[in-house]
Amino acid sequence: MSLEVALTHALPDLALDISFEVPRGVTVLFGRSGAGKTTVVNAVAGLLRPDRGRVALDGRVLFDTQAGIWVPPHRRRLGYIFQEARLFPHMTVRQNLAFGRWFAPRGPGAEDPAHVVDLLGIGHLLDRRPALLSGGEKQRVAIGRALLARPEMILADEPLAALDEARKGEILTYLERVRDEVAVPILYVTHSVAEVARLASSVVVLQEGRTIRQGPATEVLADPAVMPTGVRAVGALIEAEVVRQLPDGLTELVAGGLPLFVPRIAPAAGAQVRLRIAAHDVILSRARPEGLSALNILPGRVAAIRAGEGPGMMVTLDTDAGALLARITRRSAQALGLDVGAACHAVLKSVAIAPEDVGGRPLGGP
């Protein structure tokens, strides 16, 4: 199932001119506040009628100014998860979930309510009203209500923005489960690199109302030219397998046959994970270093060197674990004699990889 979007719309402080087409999976609309992300999602949902454009979901046209097509919001078969859960305060969790199911088309293919409740871990909340729920619990119920409406796509507009860091990590885990266990594509809005790294199959980068890049998450996160949150957000996504939990608080992973050690993560041995390694956390050494406290040393060869506007350079290193990025100074690159093809070692402290940068690997890869 693909989503095609082409929109032109004049806002008081923004001229929107967006065009993209994305495949099934989790597509993240990524950009700074004011880039037009929420406007795009509202146009897809039918909450905003753009001046011109076309929106089609798997070939079904929802909006087309040239053809005179406008499908009203309640007929678009889309589930919307807002920044605030927007649950009905006078209803219990069970009744809020049932309200979502009331909109689902009849017939085979509907989500089993018991499965959704189990998937989101909300079984113990069914008889409570929203006033007695935490922010994270409310969002999990909102996700469940959207799923039970049997949508053709879920729209999520910064659903973690109102939560603290602990609750964000909790909801990200549930969103990963939804991504992997429920056959429904998701269009997800965020300006958080961690959320992109954890969830995205593909990324559309918006800047001042324009589409400036789209593609697989692995490629977009590695491109400093389009990262809206700055060069310090640039990093690589590595796929790995959990080997074992160690008694000293670390988890051992293996990526392309190379060992990696990270602070303890929840997945058990055998689980497939994807971790983000920020370019500014990687140190390069021509020879294999010894006598260091860093536990992760990955040999490879320089694949590319990109000079920045200032004193920095971005070095891409091909390793058996995957491509890594290192942000170093021009002076360091000259001192090391770096050139494309040069043998090199990437050095990474275990504690540099934050728990929120490690998540379940999307089915079908990045």
Automatic annotation (TrEMBL):
Organism field: Cribrihabitans marinus
Domain Mop residues, every copy: 291-357
Domain ABC transporter span(s) in chain numbering: 1-233
Molecular function via GO: ABC-type transporter activity; ATP binding; ATP hydrolysis activity; molybdate ion transmembrane transporter activity
Gene3D superfamilies registered for this protein in UniProt: 2.40.50.100, P-loop containing nucleotide triphosphate hydrolases
Organism domain of life: Bacteria
GO cellular component entries: membrane
Name of the featured protein: Molybdate transport system ATP-binding protein
Keywords attached to this entry: ATP-binding, Cell inner membrane, Cell membrane, Membrane, Molybdenum, Nucleotide-binding, Translocase, Transport
